[in-house]
Amino acid sequence: MTAALFFCAASVVSCQKEETAGAAPSCAAPSCAAIRLTAEPAEFVRTKSETDVAYASRFVEGDAIGLFAVIRSDAETQAYRAASGNYIQNAKFVRQADGSWREEGSKSYYMEQGQVMDLYAYYPYAENADPTALVYDASVAEADFMTARTPGFSERDGEIRLVFRHKLALAEAFVADADKLADYAVTVQDVRTKAVFSLAAAAQDAEMQSVDAKTASVAMTRCGNAFRAYLPAQEIAEGKALLKVEGNGFAAFDYTHPGKTSLAANQVRKLLVTPAFANPELLPNCYVVSPGETLYIPVSKAFGVWGKNDVLAGEGAGMLGAMGARVVWEDVRYLLNGDGNCYWSWHIWATEYDPSQVAGQQTVGGNVFMDRNLGATSLVKGPQSAGCFYQWGRKDPFQGPYTWMMFLNGNAGWSNDGIGKFMTLRGFASSNVPSENLVASVRQPYRYIVGVSDWLSPAVGGEDYRWSNADGTKGVFDPCPDGWRVPFRAREPLPHGPI
Asked: Do 186 and 216 fall within a single domain?
């Protein structure tokens, strides 16, 4: 992960100076060039200030770097920084809203004709920084730490290119069940957080001089569905309680990484954490993620429902041995279809929409609703704002109406994904035994169930709490994501019917 900044060197006819930093070389026009430092990002900036879920990073407005420069006494021999007295001494350049970089104080720097300069930079900027002992402490820092160096620059080169490299390890934790709505907190416990780097090292890879033995805890920062912390390179001992995880639905617990592991500079160490949920059957059937994010779904939900539900527990689920996973359908492009049984399924709603934000909510009669139907891809009135289809009491969605080309009869329909591929939605007749229908609805989520009056029970409304519990709380078959549920009106039919 690197980034490039371009500092343009402009030659001028005269040597008239503006304010300078450090002692400028003596020169008489036209034997020297004035170097006014400006910066532009390279075409593909991959550095930290802001790193997205795909590890592509960008400098953002307000970021500041520190720059040092040393003029060579011998044009063929690289010069290294001293603690002070460098030609350019910790000049501060700040990222502007338009993507350019501006030095505080707008100083100018000069080089005599034929001189060669070595430049060194670091991020983030610190006042009175000693380039031979740059200190980073993850317990108080708010950003990654990076360095860059460009040796052998002369006025003939025209522009200075600084390539920043990460000097820290990125610890990245994923918590199973954590989508964008989950309220979790993760802390890295008792790790070494403080390191010293020297820009005077002979090689950029050798800049880390020491790591303090003192340990501290660091609250990880959330990025999408991941939790991140930048730490100095170090070894993690086997059996160490590395993370503390807190959230809804389980008691706070320590995560111990199996075996010994290393945190290496400029590398990502991924950690997958699966909480021990007290009531896994209450986990959601729908997860909301932004495009490109990673999601881990705890399968303990399936075991919890099959083990505790009165109907399913008596049906001999046979949930033993290795199991696989597959995509049943998606509304953009058909991936897979078949008639194999499954034991649980989840709806993944990939959308930039975040229902936890007030701007994406509506309040009606004192109750807070999403501002769109579940699964809707647009707010503009029309088929795409209708969202997914559901049979009353079933947790799994069917494709929205905008995908349907035709509905043949009571047992089949065809949908089009917009690129010429078709998916057949098959139905089958319900049994007179409600338990058989419930098992079928779980094992074949992509098939709708046709009944004389209702898919589950011959008696319409025989169970008025299919999506909700009898007391109105969210039930195990509710199709909504974490923190949301289908509205419930006790003893009254819900305003939903079978497809």
From this structure: yes
On whether residue 477 sits in a domain, the answer given is: no
Token pair of 97, please?
């809203």
CB-CB contact of 23 with 87 (8 Å): yes
Structure tokens at 302: 């399936």
- Measured between alpha carbons, how far is 96 from 9 in angstroms, rounded to an integer? 19
Q: What is the pLDDT of residues 296-342, one digit of tens each?
A: 888 888 888 888 887 777 665 555 556 666 665 555 443 333 445 67
Nearest residue to 369 (alpha-carbon basis) of 382, 378, 358: 358
Domain assignment of residue 483, yes or no: no
**DSSP secondary structure letter of residue 409:** E
pTM here is 0.74
Rounded Cα–Cα distance for residues 351 and 287 (Å):
10
Q: Which residues pair with 349 in a beta bridge?
A: 288
Domain that holds residue 120: 2-166
In order, the DSSP letters of 452-473 are SS-SS-SSTTS-TTSSB-TTSS
Are the C-beta atoms of residues 428 and 411 closer than 8 Å to each other?
yes
Residue 382 placed within a domain: yes
Q: Tokens 């007749």 identify what position? A: 429
Same domain, 97 and 126: yes
